Amino acid sequence: MKKQPKAVYIIENGGYTELTYEEFCRREQICPLYADKLFLPLYGRLMEVSKEDYAEFYRAKRRQKYLDERSADNGDFSYDMLTTDEFSGEDILIAEQPDVCDAVVESIMTDKLRKAILKLTD
């Protein structure tokens, strides 16, 4: 972690025990068993986890990094990046099409106009 964690959670007696980082460091120096424990940084805290959870966490993290790198290499663009409080980026994708009702009314009125023009005298 870049900063000192607010707390450290270790598994003791089948449950989690909260320690200060200083207490954890002191215990780590006294007891060599602490060197083999695996921890994940979560919300500014360290949490002891199983080997499987540790491997899965970093596998998923590496996968996301890989996807981000591929996305950057391909020049992918997310419309969600354009979203603000006043505007949704997805609104760009909606094609502005005329209203069907208006198109029908205009077509009918055009036909009536042609018939009326033919009835006019010179």
What's the SSE blueprint?
Layout: E1 8-12, E2 15-19, H1 21-30, E3 38-42, E4 45-49, H2 51-74, H3 100-119
Parallel strand pairs: 1-4
Antiparallel strand pairs: 1-2, 3-4
Protein name: Sigma-70 family RNA polymerase sigma factor
Overview of this protein structure:
The mean pLDDT is 87. This protein has a 4-stranded mixed beta sheet with strand order 2-1-4-3. It has helices at 21-30, 51-74, 100-119, and strands spanning 8-12, 15-19, 38-42, 45-49. Helices cover 44% and strands 16% of the residues. It folds into 2 domains: 8-74, no CATH class; 95-119. With 122 residues, the chain is of the alpha+beta class.
Short description:
44% of the residues lie in helices and 16% in strands. With 122 residues, it is of the alpha+beta class.
Percentage of residues in strands? 15-25%
Radius of gyration: 33 Å
**What do the pLDDT scores average to?**
87
Decide which structural class fits the backbone: alpha+beta
The figure for the number of domains is 2
- What percent of residues adopt helix (DSSP H or I)? 40-55%
* Amino-to-carboxy terminus distance: 90 Å
Number of helices: 3
Main traits of this protein?
44% helix, single chain, alpha+beta, rod-shaped, four-stranded mixed beta sheet, Sigma-70 family RNA polymerase sigma factor, 122 residues, 16% strand
